[in-house]
Known about the structure:
By secondary structure, the chain is an alpha+beta fold.
Amino acid sequence: MVIALxxxxxxxxxxxxxxxxxxxxxxxAPAEVEGAAPVRPEDLPVLPLDVPAVTPExxxxxxxxMEKLPLELAGEPxxxxxxxxxxxxxxxxxxVVLRCGVERPAGWTVTASAIxxxxxxxxxxxxxxxxxxxTAVDRxxxxxxxxxxxxxxxxxxxxxxxxxxxxxxxxxxxxx
Length: 176
């Protein structure tokens, strides 16, 4: 009963000064709602992105990836991008950016290690102080997820399931 009363007071607002106590004559102040409004995709600026050239492998694999991507990732909304291909996607500000069909990462060599998350193997490049770049290395095409510095691996973890559903496993092929 107390909880319901608190909710009603919070929704209806508190009584105003001069309230007679008669519910039929009671004037209510508007309820005050606190908290930030959620960020909507249309509120974020269009993000221009450079993309690699589209290859036959990209055309064969990336549409399935793009169809599986979530509209929201780790609590961040998707956002509009400007690119020469449809195989890029972004969420939030600062943006988490996915690019499908990228080149093999330069650091992905036979001596490099990979991290496996939910059945997807990722090469992690931390050489850029502004971002951590995760690249799925065990699929028919390389898929890169660029995380702003300070963002943990939650977005990558969330993307492993749609990525594994969209693209079949392929034995990793590191460079020499």
